[in-house]
Design brief:
Length: about 350
Amino acid sequence: MASEDELLDLVRMRNYRQVAIELIALEAGRDVFDIEALREDPEGALGGNDEITVEYDMSPRDGCSVFGYYRHVPAGQSMIFVHPSLTSERDRFTILHELGHHVQRQHLGWANVRHSLPSEIGAQLEERVADAFAAEVLIPASTVPADATWLSARTLAEVYTTVRASRAAVAMRAIEIAPEGEQATVIVTDHRGMVTFARASGDEVFAPARGRIQPGIAKMIESAFERGGSAIGPLDRGLEARSGWAQQDLQVEVALDDTWGYAFVVVRSAQRFGRKPTWDRIDDAECGNEACGTVFTVNEAVTICPACEVPKCPECGRCACEPKTSPVCDRCWLELTPAEQADPALHECP
């Protein structure tokens, strides 16, 4: 097994996946958790375990994005608390992520490395390794044959049908495992071509923003519906950015998942190695404000926001920046006027 110096080298290289692999190997030697059983059913595999238990926290999360948390009990049974999500895939990842925190406490060599770092950096490292641990258990590299590439839409669609993980987790895993130098952007969209997840391997093709329909991808998805679930070809109209520009000269592969409600998309540069990406101005843009949705022409009359570089909608004035919200009263939740903000005594609750 890796020494503390070797583990520290992995941290310096940000090779969290290899750290997770080392921890899983150590766990196999400890023989407390069945890794194969964890892959199939994390909650069931931990049932009856003397070292840790899983509990569901049904209390409201009050807008918090945390799906679970780990509570270490030094002289007893530690606990994983899960806030149930809308999908079992998300809950399985949460359980394994929190188990990753527990596992990191069980091996002195790794614990020494983690706690040798400043507190904030060590905490961030622990989170990254917990994510890597969950991904390595759920979607091992052996899921795809050694002679195949992870950066293939059809491969990702096949992986999704065989593992118990979310589409985003499968897509992210492809980026993590892809060989260094193999450049592409992996995207998950709904059946309309609206991006729900995107990550880039390398810098040849940018990762588009979530929540935006990509017309070129939407067109290729239509072809996939007509051709039995997959399609490949040039990306018509390019990959559009919020800035009003689109990256051109791209090749796209699309594969529908087993529900045909979502698609895995892999975009690569169609240019020869060494050429700079080409960009064209988009004539039309769609307002990102769901309450507006205006489609407008990007021309000299349209203002480009200097902060987010997205055209401001001529109808509602919105760009991609978060809208400013006025403070509210913590008792009645009504917005405070500028005068009431300056002097709270002026505010009267209804």
